[in-house]
Design brief:
This protein has about 220 residues and is an alpha/beta fold. Helices cover about 40% and strands about 20% of the residues. The protein has helices spanning about 5-15, 50-70, 80-90, 135-145, 160-170, 180-190, 195-205, and strands at about 20-25, 30, 35, 40, 75, 95-100, 110-115, 120-130, 150-155, 175-180. It starts with a helix and ends in a 9-residue tail after the last helix.
């Protein structure tokens, strides 16, 4: 669920302007999962553009408090959300921790890095939601560490049905700055893509695991 439509449109415009989102229906990207995709999202680029990162920071900060109340700790999901998560924590005057994909193999064997006490209220910051699986592994690690995870916020979501089901099964609320629908609407309005390319992008979004360029 997006925080609000104005934020969703503005965020989508920023992401397109800085080429954080690349749309290439005729020459698809290959994701780590093996899926073929006409879209690629690299929100790490946000950190290189002060005006954009400040906007994202401020929108997260005010909407986190509005939706969840002020938490005790902000957690970022490694590695993509560490930078923006730290900015949000700093803006809100809160402690920050980050969550590794898996526990370290040496030293203290930590998966959650930073100071976290049992029972503390945590909001998780993520950069991108596809299926939600890796994001929810971070939530599971925080819960196992004794945190009370109030919810998750992310910059962008592809809006897959499987992600919605995964978050529902994990009993976790997800709010995003923008989403696939708002991105496509803006991309067409601003002529980043043609109407024909829009149809291809919508077709992919309906069945990303089986989509091919021929389809």
């Amino acid at each position: 669920m997006i925080f609000n439509k104005d934020t969703a449109e503005k965020t989508a415009e920023f992401l397109l302007q800085i080429n954080a989102i690349k749309l290439n229906p005729r020459n698809p990207f290959t994701w780590a999962s093996g899926w073929k995709s006409p879209i690629y999202c690299d929100n790490r680029l946000i950190l290189s553009f002060p005006a954009v990162r400040n906007y994202v920071r401020d929108e997260f900060s005010k909407n986190i408090e509005k939706q969840f109340g002020k938490p005790d700790v902000i957690a970022g999901v490694a590695t993509g959300a560490i930078g923006i998560g730290m900015l949000v924590a700093e803006s809100m005057g809160l402690p920050f921790v980050y969550v590794r994909p898996e526990p370290k193999k040496h030293g203290r064997l930590n998966q959650v890095e930073g100071f976290l006490q049992k029972g503390q209220n945590v909001v998780v910051v993520e950069d991108l939601i596809s299926t939600g699986n890796s994001s929810l592994l971070a939530v599971e690690a925080l819960r196992e560490a004794g945190a009370n995870v109030k919810g998750m916020v992310a910059i962008f979501t592809y809006g897959f049905d499987v992600a919605e089901q995964n978050f529902k099964s994990a009993h976790l609320d997800l709010f995003t700055l923008s989403n696939y629908q708002n991105l496509l609407n803006l991309a067409v309005a601003k002529r980043y893509i043609s109407e024909e390319e829009e149809l291809t992008l919508r077709e992919w979004n309906g069945s990303p695991s089986t989509w091919t360029i021929e389809g």
